[in-house]
Write a structure and sequence with these properties.
The protein has 267 residues and is of the alpha/beta class. The protein contains nine helices and 13 strands. Helix content is 47%, strand content 22%.
Length: 267
């Protein structure tokens, strides 16, 4: 019996040692995976990385501030690509996506199909689309309302930017669909406008917008990023964002914005 007990004990000790080895190995592998993930996550992306992965680039634009994007464009392109204070959001929001442009031209008519192209444009969009509409002399005309907004929302548009008015705000706020416009008005474009084209270059609040340009919007306003320069603009905008966000605790600690600007070179 004692021999059997010794054998059983030896087997138990062997099993315990084997179990400990397996557990320790799993822990080491787990730690290695976590460290690898952290290192990869902290590795800054390059313009080439973003150019090779448009979806990653659009997602990254959702995490930078519109002001930093605007500054990056000014530094790289020496151009004004932001819309004016006239463009206001119906509620505080932040989004980024690709422009789906629509143009309406002013024309009194009784044609039931005058705006059919506008509806087809909405139904052609999808996840990440930003509906960018211009209305000729449209400050007091609602370019879109609850029906169009609900359709965009159902198709997972990122948002809408209307160089004209908007209506049906209770519905738009209820579903949480973000819209920038020149302001709320109760009017309609029906019988007063005709569809002038989709995915064509437009001038929205004084800024040129081409199809597939990237629209970045937050509480500071709306910025249009030319698609062909989007990767390098993003990298610089991220750098500007990081610098500014690092300055806040510095200023709070040393109580000097002058020293912060000297230290970080950002204003």
């Amino acid at each position: 019996m004692k021999k059997l007990e010794v054998v059983a004990l030896n087997i138990s000790m062997f099993s315990l040692r084997r179990y400990c080895i397996v557990v320790n190995t799993a822990i080491v592998i787990g730690i290695a995976l976590v460290v690898t993930h952290v290192v990869l996550a902290d590795t800054p992306k390059t313009a080439a990385d973003y150019a090779a992965d448009p979806a990653l680039m659009i997602d990254a634009y959702r995490h930078v501030e519109a002001a930093s994007v605007s500054d990056a464009i000014e530094q790289l392109l020496h151009e004004k690509r932001y819309m004016s204070h006239r463009m206001q959001a119906i509620f505080p929001t932040k989004f980024a996506g690709t422009a789906l442009t629509v143009k309406l031209v002013k024309e009194e008519n009784h044609d039931v199909n005058a705006l059919t192209g506008m509806l087809k444009a909405i139904d052609s969009g999808g996840p990440g689309s930003v509906y960018v509409m211009t209305l000729e002399d449209g400050a007091d005309i609602a370019g879109m309302g609850g029906l169009m907004g609900t359709a965009m929302f159902s198709r997972n548009f990122a948002g809408a930017v209307i160089d004209g008015g908007v209506r049906d705000l209770p519905q738009l706020k209820k579903i949480g669909f973000p819209v920038y416009s020149t302001g709320p008005v109760p009017s309609t474009s029906v019988s007063h406008y005709r569809f002038g084209g989709m995915n064509v270059p437009v001038i929205c609040d004084g800024v040129k917008v081409a199809p597939q340009d990237i629209i970045v919007a937050d509480q500071d306003g709306v910025v249009v990023v030319p698609r062909e320069r989007a990767p390098e603009i993003l990298v610089l905008a991220q750098h500007l964002d990081e610098s500014e966000h690092s300055m806040y605790p510095f200023i709070e600690k040393f109580h000097s914005i002058e020293e912060a600007v000297k230290q970080f070179g950002r204003l």
